[in-house]
Amino acid sequence: MSEARRPAVTITYCTRCNWLLRAGWMAQELLSSFGEELGSVTLVPGTGGIFTVTADGLGLWDRKVDGGFPDAAELKRRLRDAVWPERGLGHVDRARDPG
């Protein structure tokens, strides 16, 4: 896989809100699903109620815009859709199908 296809994911979280564990869990979920397909997953401390997830600068989730926090499956779908749209996610995709 080329380096261009290995995105750098950044999770920025509010330290005052004590969201480090949530950010760490999201990082773990992404690494568990995408492993070596990711270039990096970085946790960045912030303030002001921030919780954002980006891949190479492209916004995947913003707590203030999207409302709250993503569940792991939704975040994985958004990352996949942005970087590897042809890739299946197994049970994560099946759980979304209406039939």
Explain what the structure shows.
The chain has four helices and four strands, in the order E-H-E-E-E-H-H-H. With 99 residues, it is an alpha+beta fold. The protein has a single domain, classed as Glutaredoxin. Strands 2-1-3-4 form a four-stranded mixed sheet. A hairpin with a 2-residue loop joins strand 3 and strand 4 (58-62). The longest helix has 15 residues, at 20-34. The chain starts with 7 loop residues before the first strand and ends with a helix. This is SelT/SelW/SelH family protein. Pfam families: Rdx (PF10262). It comes from Neotabrizicola shimadae. Keywords: Redox-active center.
Separation of the first and last Cα atoms: 34 Å
DSSP, total strands: 4
Question: Order of strands across the biggest sheet?
Answer: 2-1-3-4
Count of discrete domains: 1
Sheet with the most strands, sense and barrel status: 4 strands, mixed
Q: Which stretches are poorly predicted, pLDDT < 50 over at least 5 residues?
A: none
Q: Sum up the overall morphology in one term.
A: globular
Q: Return the CATH topology.
A: Glutaredoxin
Oligomer: single chain
Q: What is the assigned CATH homologous superfamily?
A: Glutaredoxin
* Sequence of secondary-structure elements: EHEEEHHH
State the CATH class.
Alpha Beta
Helix content estimate: 25-40%
Keywords: Redox-active center
Organism: Neotabrizicola shimadae
Protein name: SelT/SelW/SelH family protein
InterPro entries: Selenoprotein_Rdx-typ, Thioredoxin-like_sf
Structure characteristics:
about 100 residues; alpha+beta; Glutaredoxin; 4 helices; Selenoprotein_Rdx-typ; redox-active center; SelT/SelW/SelH family protein; Thioredoxin-like_sf
